[in-house]
Design a protein that fits this description.
The chain has 269 residues and is an alpha+beta fold. The chain has 2 domains: 113 residues, no CATH class; 133 residues, Pseudouridine synthase (2-Layer Sandwich). It contains 8 helices and 13 strands.
Amino acid sequence: MAAAKLLSLNGIFCVYKPKGTTSAHNLNELKQKLLKEAGLKEHGKRRKQTLKLGHGGTLDSTASGVLVVGIGDGTKMLGTMLSGSKEYSVIGELGKETDTLDDSGTVTEEKPYDHITRKDLEKVLKTFTGNIMQVPPLFSALKKDGKRLSCLVREGAEVQEKPARQVTVYGLSITDFQPPLFTLDIECGGGFYVRSLIRDIGKALSSCAYVKELIRTKQGPFTLEEHALREDSWSIEQVAQSLQEHSHLLTAEPAAKRLKTEEREPARE
């Protein structure tokens, strides 16, 4: 009965990914928990999967928040999540930069930050709103010759940065400023890296900066507070209920957003 119900589920829902775990690990934990409840076992990698699950965009292991999940035929819909809008709350720290651009890395540079005021930061943020060019971090899920850049870097290989590419920032605002720490709310499009943004903000302020804490608060129509299933709610019944209650969100999500800037010209885990 439970097995039949699990294998009949199709659609998209979202879970909470805690800090310190990869998106792939989080997804696998969910999958194993559902399969165990249903009394099912996963087939080997070369055979057809017992349960199809996928996520709609990698969230850094050092970050927490919304991870959108597709189940059954819902995995075919995840492409819209990759290109759709996302919202983050990020705490940046001025005066330091790390090799990973977040708090998991080693400090590679330190610079003074006492000259920076809230007005300076507000002024700089305007240059990072709209369609902007951004260089992705070396420590990322992007690949070279089929291998992740982050893996190549950790293996000691010489890796060139990927060229700058256009990304879109729909909204960017300061929610707290207590140097060296500052907190921003960000709404952006696909392919955007918050770590790169904080690095670039630090440089624009004649200093440096890295991500101290990052939370994805929304992806597509799914919000952390309203829709994300915590691990203690990972059950077949809860997933089924979430799929049913939130199915209307997918049709309500606009196909394209408009920039919250004067340009208003639309442009990726």
